[in-house]
Amino acid sequence: MSTTYTIDTATSRANPTPAPMKRLTVPAVRARKGGEPLVMLTAYTVRMAQLLDPHCDILLVGDSLGQVIYGLPSTLPVSLDMMCAHGAAVVRGSYHALVVIDMPFGSYEAAPELAFESAARVMKETGAAGVKMEGGEAMAETVAFLSARGIPVMGHVGLTPQSVNALGGYGARGRTNAEHVRILDDARAIAEAGAFAIVAEGVVEPLAREISAAVSCPVIGIGASADCDGQVLVAEDMLGLFERTPRFVKRYADMATVVSEAAAAYASDVRSRAFPGPEQVYAPK
Ligand code: KIV
Q1: How many domains does the chain have?
Q2: pTM given for the model
C-alpha cells in the first residue's frame, strides 16, 4: 500500500492520501486473539510512523529509543519527557495503527498510584491509546488499577530489558524449569489483571507457545515463536540500520548501506563542486 502526504500549512498536519481506515482500537486488538496475527513495529519519529502505519496494527513507541535514537547504553536512563515527546510525534504521524507507549523505568513500579499519574500524563500529552509496562506478578495490581481507570495496559514478560541488572544480561529466558514456570505465572497474572495484550520477549519457543495458549489476550512475540498472536520488532533492526543483527531479527532491508552510499556520493559531489548543480540553485528574476 502506498500512502502520500499533503501538508496542511495551517496546522502543519500531514494529510494522507488515500484516506486511511479508522484507527484500530484496544477492543479490536484484543479480539484478534487466535485470529490474523497482529503486526507491530516500533516507531519513534513522525516520518517513520507515516511510513510504517499503513502496514501495522500497532505502533510501539518503545523505550528502546534510548539506545536506537539517543545512543544510551540501556533503556534505564529513558525519561517520561522523552517518551511523551516521541509518543506525540508518532501519534501525529499515524492514522491507522493503535499507538502504545512504553512506560520508562522508574515511572511506574513503586505503586499503582505513581503508575496512574505517569500513564495519565503519557496519554494526555501523546494522544496514544495505551501504555506498555514490563513485569509479571509484581505488576498485576498496577495493571488492574490502571485498567479499571481507563488506561489500557499492554504487559511485557520474559526478557524484560529494564531488569537487565537483575537478570544479568539480555539472554533468552525460560531455559530452566523454575524460570519457565515463573514466566508462565507472570503472563497469567497480568492477563488476569486486565492487560489487553502481552509482549513475550526472548523466551524459548515452547514457553512462548505455552504462554499464548494459556492467556485470553493476544501474545505478541519478539524472539519468541511464530505461534504467538502477533510479532514485534524494532523497526531499525529489521531495516538493517545496525551492523549487528540479533538472532531473533530478520533483516528486510540494508538501510545502513543505503545511507552510507548516499552520504559518500553527496560528500564526493560537494568536494568536486558537482553539487549544487544548475537544478538546485536559484536564478535571478
Ligand atoms: O522498547 C521496545 O522497543 C520494546 C520492544 C522490543 C517490545 O519493548
Answers
A1: 1
A2: 0.93
CA angle 45, 46, 47 (to 5 degrees): 95
Closest residue (by CA) to atom 1 of ligand 1? Answer: 62
pLDDT in tens, 49-96: 999 999 999 999 999 999 999 999 999 999 999 999 999 999 999 999
Joined together, the cell numbers standing for residue 88 give: 506525540
C-alpha 207 – ligand 1 centre gap (Å): 19
**HSE-CB for 133 with a 13 A CA cutoff:** 39
Look at ligand 1, atom 5, and give the residue with the nearest C-alpha.
62
157 occurs within a structural domain: yes
Nearest Cα residue to 208 out of 132, 143, 157, 168? 157
Q: Which ligand 1 atom lies nearest to the CA of residue 233? A: 6
Q: Which domain holds residue 157?
A: 3-280
Q: What are phi and psi of 76, to 5 degrees?
A: -60, -40
Cα distance between residue 27 and residue 137, in whole Å: 23
From CA 285, how far away is CA 283, in angstroms rounded? 6
Interaxial angle between packed helices 80-92 and 112-126, expressed in degrees from 0 to 180 and rounded to the nearest 10: 40
- The contacts of residue 65 (CB under 8 Å, 6+ apart) are 42, 44, 78, 82, 83, 86
Residues lining ligand 1, Cβ inside 6 A: 42, 60, 62-64, 102, 199, 201, 222, 232, 234
Indicate which CATH number applies to the domain containing 171: 3.20.20.60
Distance in Å, CA 101 to ligand 1 centroid? 10
210 is catalytic: no
